[in-house]
Amino acid sequence: MEVRVLVAEDDEGDAYLMQSLLTELREPPAGGATFSPSVSDSLPSALEALRGHTFDVVILDLDIGGARGTDALAAVLVESPQTPLVVVSSRDDVELGIRAVEMGAQDHLVKSELVGDRLARSVLYSIERQRQCEALRARTIVDELTGLYNRRGFFTLGTQTLRLTRRKGREVVVLFVDLDGLKRVNDSLGHECGDELIRAAAELLRSTFRDSDIVARIGGDEFAVVANETDGTPAEVITARLRKAIESLNVSRPADRRLSMSVGAARHTVMADAELSELLARADTEMYSDKRQHVGETSRG
Fold first, then answer.
1. What is the DSSP letter of 252?
2. Would you say residue 33 has pLDDT above 50?
3. Based on CB atoms within 10 Å of each CB, which residue in 9, 75, 112, 226 is the most buried?
4. Are strands 261-268 and 172-179 parallel, antiparallel or unpaired?
């Protein structure tokens, strides 16, 4: 397999050494991996490379560009939180290494100890550790019934998305969606039919929004979405697209199992500094207003 590596290092000699250690191995590591390194000689260029390309791992000099402590690591984690990270430094500082691993790095290496296949092995081990961490994390943030993110996943990933969009000067729209009439379906047709209705609603949301959006089931009949990169698109257009998808789906569903959803939306602009919980609360208020209009003064669900 080819392993795409971003080496973020501003010392020309160290960068050359790391490239050589990865590309001139006499014996391929387990699995016959080959390495394809790219070098960025500054933190801004490394962040730009992460925006424009996909890498399997990043090797980051903690001191790049005169960065202090774990500042460079924090910037890379914000830009590409899912990419495995190996950090290197000139100092044999155990406390710094521990702090870097606590923040999300998979390994910390001292430059003077980069000999033989140690760097290559660290890269491969880091990729595997990240994969296992992601698999474990998925089990804790995914809703079992629908396969969407659960409430924890929504707030964890949604908060990360909000921070990133703020830094980029982008806008997001947060939606609160309530599945109408679930209690009636459970009471009249049984909970299996109710579960099928929830799964149908989840699949509709998944197909309506993009892979880059955060779509979650945050309660029994409640869903939430963080639609990112929505600059210039009014919230009303996004909710109208969802309503059209509901209408199209209901054409093929029995009358007693048609989907009805109440929807509210709140936009986060670059001028605002609202937390995700506040945006969700605003969207919830809008959703309840929508529910009163098309369902009537009834209790939710």
1. T
2. yes
3. 226
4. antiparallel
The whole-model pTM stands at 0.60
Asked whether 156 and 58 are in contact (CB, 8 A), the reply is: no
Helices (H), the chain: 12-23, 43-52, 71-79, 94-103, 118-141, 151-168, 182-189, 191-208, 235-250, 276-294
Q: How confident is the model at residue 295 (pLDDT cuts 50, 70, 90)?
A: low
Question: How does pLDDT run across 168-190, given as a tens digit for each residue?
Answer: 778 889 999 999 988 888 888 89
Which domains are delineated in the chain? 2-141 (3.40.50.2300), 151-294 (3.30.70.270)
pLDDT at 297 over 60: no
Helix axes 43-52, 71-79, angle to 10 degrees: 20
SS3 256: helix
Instruction: Tell me the C-alpha distance between 133 and 107, whole Å.
Output: 14
Residue 135: half-sphere exposure toward Cβ, Cα within 13 Å: 6
Distance separating alpha carbons of residues 271 and 222, to the nearest angstrom: 29
